[in-house]
Structures are given as C-alpha cells and as structure tokens.
Design goal:
Number of domains: 1
Mean pLDDT: 87
Distance between the termini: 33 Å
Number of helices: 0
Radius of gyration: 19 Å
CATH architecture: 3 Solenoid
Helix content: under 10%
Oligomer: single chain
C-alpha cells in the first residue's frame, strides 16, 4: 500500500518587540512506501493484550544482533527485539495493517528513510530503542484504533530533509491510549536537519484519554525557520496534551497549538538561547482556517530569546481568547539550559 498524505500550509508567527511577521510553509507529508519482507526475520510470538508497563531507556541492555530491514503486513502478537538495522534507503522497520506488536531494545540507524513506519496499525508498543541518523525517527500514519505507544526511546540527529525531520510524528492517529512519553531526544546543530521535534497532524484522542506527550526531554533544533519543539493541533485535531516536557534550544518555537479543540500545554519547561532562527517560546494561533477552541495553557515556565536577542516567551494571536489557565504561566522564568542534563543520549 502506498498511502498518500496531505499537504498543508502553516503560517509561522515571528514576533520582534511589537511587530508580527507571518512566514509561510507547506508541510507535505510524503508517503513512505513499505518494502517487501526480507526472507528471514527473527521475531518471537507475543501474548495478546501486551502490557504497557515499560522499562526506561536507561535500564535497557545495549546489545544488538545485526538484521536486514524488517517489513511486515497483517502480523500480530509478535516482538521484535535486540536488532541493529541500518536502513540504507528503506525504513528500518515497516509495519502495515499490524496489531499487538512490540518493538523494543533495537538500534535503527543510517537511513535516508524513516526509522519505524507504521501504517493502519493498532496496539503497537515501541520502547527502549535507539534511533539515529534517519530522516524521521517514528512515523505513524493513519492509525484509527489507538494503542500506539512510543515511550522511553532515545533519538539522536534526525536528518530530514523537510517535510521529514521529526523524532516522532502522528499523522491521522485516532482513538484512545496513544502516547509519546518519556523519550530522550537530541539534535546537534550541524549534524542534523530537523523540522518539528514531535508533531501531531490531524490526530484525535478522546475526552477520556487524550493523546499524551509527557515527560519528554528534547534538546536541539534548527536551522529550519518553521520547525521547533512540540506541535499540537496541526491542521486540526482534538484532545491532545503536552505536559511536563523539558525543551532546550528546540528550534524556531518551543511548544505550540496551531488549531483544533481541547488541546493542552501544561507544566512544561521551555528555554532557548538566541539563534538566527529562534522566535517564540510558546504560541497559540489558528492557521489554515482551523479554529482553536477549548484550549488550556497552564503552569508553564518559559525563557526564550528570539533572533534579536529579546526575551520572547509567548504569542497569542489577535482575536483569540486566552486559553484556560493563561495567568498561571511564567513567560520570563528564571531557568537556563541546565534544566536538561549535560548528557542526554546514553545509547550507542
């Protein structure tokens, strides 16, 4: 199957003192074409209803067995574990129409394609992996039944180019129990070419179980003039929450809501030094005609310097009501780059 993904336009706010400049970008989500299955794949059967209780990346053994790329269709109740896969021009792991699959303790690297590509899958748990030098780490495409769990992985140097370049992107992911939690992510300027670190495009959680982006540590971004940290509500979506994340020098912006309903940014730490591409720490603005409603922005601490060296913590677009919790944020917090540890990526 060759899914074709949408093209959308996103205006990027650029605020310098009192002047707002709008910049235009088209984020075409190009299709990633699943490859045919290799002749031999070492996987183990998994019991149904796999537990989502995951070991953190710091506790996972770092020993791997070399493997060719893995491409599976209509597979279920299996574990892919302990593989070292250099993708080359292919996605290191591709799952199409699969469910109840666990990908863990793998090293996925050196590909002009993505590290892990999921299409029309559900109940997929991805934890304890190390992904480096790939176009995008994990790309989840049209997953309607939920249960996509991306927790406790490490990512280093996403290569893009645009429109790729994310650590994790959800594209039309829907349902309950979708998570991007407790990952450690780093892009080194000059060694990477990222866009948004974590991106939710036209994705919908539920009122009882929003899509969760929690406890991630993100460092590094740029030189893209449109990419940044965590993007919620891109071209719509609902019931998404970014909570308790820590971002340092993540790019043009820190965290944003650009559309949709009932999306929340709460209790995050956002810091950036001034760089040629930096703009604003947190923003709420409705782009591409997608209205924003029911938003919450509360308890965040931000210190973000734009490209002119001016502290520019926040931008709320003209005509929008302040989201719930607006007065509880600190847009000029006493924080610096030490909010993240000196060594973030421990896997090799």
């Amino acid at each position: 199957m060759n899914p074709k993904n949408p093209c959308w336009h996103r205006f990027v706010p650029f605020v310098i003192i009192f002047v707002t400049i709008f910049m235009f970008s088209c984020k075409k989500e190009d299709a990633v074409i699943p490859q045919s299955s290799p002749a031999a794949i070492s996987v183990t059967e998994n019991t149904p209803n796999m537990s989502a209780s995951l070991a953190t990346s710091s506790t996972v053994a770092q020993t791997y067995v070399s493997s060719p790329v893995i491409s599976l269709s209509n597979a279920s109740n299996i574990t892919i574990s302990g593989k070292a896969i250099a993708g080359g021009t292919k996605a290191a792991i591709t799952l199409t129409n699969c469910h109840d699959v666990h990908i863990t303790n793998c090293k996925l690297y050196n590909s002009t394609n993505v590290g892990i590509y999921l299409y029309n899958c559900y109940n997929i748990t991805i934890n304890g992996n190390y992904l480096t030098n790939v176009s995008t780490g994990i790309y989840v495409d049209h997953a309607a039944k939920g249960g996509i769990i991306v927790n406790g992985n490490q990512f280093l140097n996403m290569k893009g180019p645009f429109p790729r370049g994310q650590f994790v992107q959800f594209n039309n992911v829907k349902g309950a129990n979708n998570q991007i939690n407790s990952n450690q992510c780093e892009n080194i300027l000059g060694q990477s070419n990222p866009e948004d670190a974590i991106s939710l495009y036209q994705s919908y959680g539920t009122s009882a179980c929003p899509i969760s982006i929690r406890g991630n540590q993100i460092r590094g971004g740029g030189p893209s003039n449109s990419g940044g940290g965590i993007m919620l509500g891109d071209s719509g979506g609902a019931y998404q929450i970014a909570d308790g994340n820590t971002l340092v020098n993540a790019g043009q912006y820190g965290i944003a809501i650009s559309g949709g309903s009932h999306n929340s940014i709460t209790n995050n730490l956002i810091y950036s030094v001034s760089q040629s591409f930096t703009n604003v720490g947190l923003y709420v603005a409705s782009f591409s005609g997608i209205l924003i409603s029911g938003a919450q922005v509360a308890g965040n601490r931000v210190k973000f310097y734009n490209s002119s060296g001016i502290a520019n913590g926040v931008w709320l677009a003209d005509g929008l009501l302040a989201p719930a919790g607006w007065s509880t944020n600190n847009w000029n917090a006493n924080i610096d780059s030490s909010i993240l540890p000196a060594v973030l990526i421990t896997k090799k």
